[in-house]
Design a protein that fits this description.
alpha+beta, 14-stranded mixed beta sheet, elongated, two-stranded antiparallel ribbon, 4 helices, 323 residues
Amino acid sequence: YTTVWLDNIGIFCFYITMLKKVILGITLILILSIAGLILFFPLDSFVKERIDKALGPGISIKNLKIGWNAIVADDILVKTPSGTGFLEIKQLRLKPYLWALLRKKFDIKEIEMDSPRLVIKRTKGGKWLFPEFKKKEGGKPAVELVVKAFKANNGNVIIEDDLKGFNMKLIGVTVTMKSGISLFQSGKTTITASAKFLDAGNASLKSEGNISDGKFKGTLTIRDMNMTLLRPYMKGDVVVKRGRLNLDSNFGLDKGYVKAPSLLRIRNMDIETRGFLMGVGAPFVIEFVKKKGEIVLNFNIWGKWNNLQHDLKESFKRKVSEE
């Protein structure tokens, strides 16, 4: 059941691709606005038409302010084809080097995102709901996009898995990405992220790699998470009444394929006396917990990000039988 966390690594890469689409749309606004100032020509309708074509109906920006030191976009909304909200951004600030446009580059020193709200949703039919973007046919983009740093603060991430009946909200989400060249080009990119659970506990991620080829290595850490939140992913018919878990995972991501040797620690666990937990009878689990005080398991996660496999059940059965 802990694979729910690594599922979101691939989703995070998709999220970065989506963000690039939004930035390119804002770039188009900037170029057309500058052109309008130079030519003294009313381009409002022309700009709107081009923006609609560039971003598509799934993305909207309520307000945009263009200055020499910053570009500020307010109330950005990204929807899925079904009409559900995928991403809401209260404010997006870009700090560009405008002189770089003369060299056909949109060079951004830093992007700051305030109070984003990301909804990751899977339907009862098993379909993940993501936005869709229009693909540009042929040729290279007229302007090269260079982004050196990205920061998101005070965010919320909502995970809704209707197939499993799972719902979770992460608060206080922060994300920082830095690159010596550009986040969207070849070169090392470092990523750090952290979040809090509603009822105590936290999660953090540290990683470095290359967004352009989809290769990353990093660590995922979870501390003091309420186990009862994960009931929909627990295999067996036993009811877990309480428990807290820690997870340390060293993952590698290569073009959507995940390998992640992991360590799981469960403490203060209390379960019903009947039924099975991950293939082990409840009485044996209760006796094991009384004897050891906590459950410590080494296990592995592997596979494509949207179809991960793990040997947690086998590891758990082996651990209990050895004792």
